[in-house]
Amino acid sequence: MQHVQVRVTGAEQIGPYTLLRVSRDDLDPGSPGQFFMLEAPGRPLPRPMSVCLAPPGELAFLIDPIGPGTRALCALQPGQELALLGPLGNGYRLDVERPLLVGGGIGVAPLPFLSEALGRPPAILGFRSDWHAEAAQLVPNAEVVVEPTYVTEAMPPGHGVLACGPEPMLAAVARLEPTAQLAWEAPMACGYGACYGCAVEIDGELKRLCVEGPVLGAEAVAA
Ligand SMILES: Cc1cc2nc3c(=O)[nH]c(=O)nc-3n(C[C@H](O)[C@H](O)[C@H](O)COP(=O)(O)OP(=O)(O)OC[C@H]3O[C@@H](n4cnc5c(N)ncnc54)[C@H](O)[C@@H]3O)c2cc1C
Ligand code: FES
Question: Quick check: pTM over 0.90?
Answer without folding.
Answer: yes
